[in-house]
Amino acid sequence: MAENLLEVTDLTVRFGGLTAVNKFDIAVQRGTIHALIGPNGAGKSTTFNCISRFYEPTAGRILLNGVDVTRSPASAMAGLGVARTFQNLELFGELTVFENVMIGAHVHAGRSWADALSARPSGVVDHIEHLLQRTGLTAYRNTVARNLDFGHQKLLELARALAIRPRLLLLDEPAAGLRNREIAALDALLTDLCRREGITILLVEHVMQLVMAISDRVTVLNFGTKIAEGTPDEVRNDPSVIEAYLGQEMVHA
Ligand SMILES: Nc1ncnc2c1ncn2[C@@H]1O[C@H](COP(=O)(O)OP(=O)(O)OP(=O)(O)O)[C@@H](O)[C@H]1O
Ligand SMILES: [Mg+2]
Q1: What pTM was estimated for this model as a whole?
Q2: pLDDT tens column, 110-140
């Protein structure tokens, strides 16, 4: 068993003339919460899209538990225990909250989503009810996804990602659109998922209060390049990070 559940080395992504990610390395240790932060356009979501195999890297290697998945198809990732949420939401807007999570659970079992909605084994239903409860969505169980506010849609994406029982969870801005009380609940939930259930979390987030409270390690990207890495305290006090990112975040806050 590799010590690092995820290892990305020398990742480069070019879009035409733009280098979105440049020779980027990150090693995510098993059973930790690792944050990836940086200004808008730094390349965080692009990195996520490569790890979850939605984008083809221009160069570099992605190892999952020591196995090279750089060229694996996106459809294989759930089976390998990798779940993700999207910055801009990828929900089935016309389906209910329950149905959206149901689809997540069945993608794992290799069924089509139409089959997923018709077959409802009780173990799966119980698991989904449990996930809705943990993400604070029980009251919205029969609400059509497009009628939820943005924050609750983000929580629904999280519940759906958890439905596959991932070992690696990639979260792209899970706190966007949440109120303070909801951020506190998210803090507790992510901590619990990692510490009690051993799920490894790679977190992209602009809400620094959350990042600094729950992360074991923080990596900072700026213009596609890693500029710092360390504990929350090390990164928070790093002058290059304050200059490139945290200074401006404090002003926004
Ligand atoms: N599919 C694409 N085609 C062309 N350019 C892209 C594509 N995806 C991302 N980019 C560009 O790559 C750069 C990195 O974008 P990315 O979305 O990874 O940033 P980010 O760090 O997630 O920013 P934010 O915090 O705003 O979400 C940006 O300049 C963006 O415009
Ligand atoms: Mg992004």
Answers
A1: 0.92
A2: 556 566 566 666 778 899 999 999 999 999 9
Q: Using a 6 Å CB cutoff, which residues line ligand 1? A: 15, 18, 20, 38, 40-46, 87
CATH 3.40.50.720 fits 4-252, yes or no: no
- Amino acid identity at 142: N
The 3-state secondary structure of the chain reads CCCEEEEEEEEEEEECCEEEEEEEEEEEECCCEEEEECCCCCCHHHHHHHHCCCCCCCEEEEEECCEECCCCCHHHCHHHCEEECCCCCCCCCCCEHHHHHHHHHHHHCCCCHHHHHHCCCHHHHHHHHHHHHHCCCHHHCCCEHHHCCHHHHHHHHHHHHHCCCCCEEEEECCCCCCCHHHHHHHHHHHHHHHHCCCCEEEEECCCHHHHHHHCCEEEEEECCEEEEEECHHHHHCCHHHHHHHHHHHHHHC
User: Could you state, in order of their start, the residue ranges of all structural domains in the chain?
Assistant: 4-252
Ligand 2: centre distance to CA 114 (Å): 30
